[in-house]
Design goal:
It contains six helices and eight strands. The chain is of the alpha/beta class. The strands form two sheets. Strands 1, 2, 3, 4, 5 and 6 form a six-stranded parallel β-sheet that branches. Strands 7-8 form a two-stranded antiparallel ribbon. Helix 1 crosses helix 6.
Length: 193
Amino acid sequence: MSKPVLQIIVGSTRPGRVGLPVAQWFEGLARESGEFEVELVDLAEVDLPLMDEPNHPRMRKYTKDHTKRRSETIDRADAFVFVMPEYNYGFSAALKNAIDYLCLEWAYKPVGLVSYGGISAGTRAAQMIKQVVTTLKMTPLFEAVSIPFVQKSITDGTFSPEAPVGEGARAMLAELGRMEEALRGLRRGGAKA
């Protein structure tokens, strides 16, 4: 049996962002765990326009090639990690837009949250996104990675956190594995979205 697919989604597109080095660090940990096939999905590369589909995403009647590609990408995943900054006490518009393009493709998949920022470590953004993902029948994990003063851990474009951040990430990966397995039957036809 093949390994489940974990997609790590970089939720910031801002020039000079630190989300990519944080996501690359997490990608390395996920690959080391050996539990998942790991894909890094960078929203800056995906470059979705602001929602431009005429039909509700629940219908899956996509008219744009970028939406069809996005649907195939998200459909293929079994679990997610959102690497996200906190902007004005919330999560980024780029991440919200990427989520809103689709509906059924997200259902019955666990999501881990890696948030970062200043003193609050992006925790307000993490709390806010939980309302959105549960509406799409995703399961946000209790285990999370919250990185305060993220800039202090980046040198020459490489994120190197202190040990407790890595320990938290490993705990979250282990829980993602358990939740992915528990939700698998629902994703594979055991229930309809």
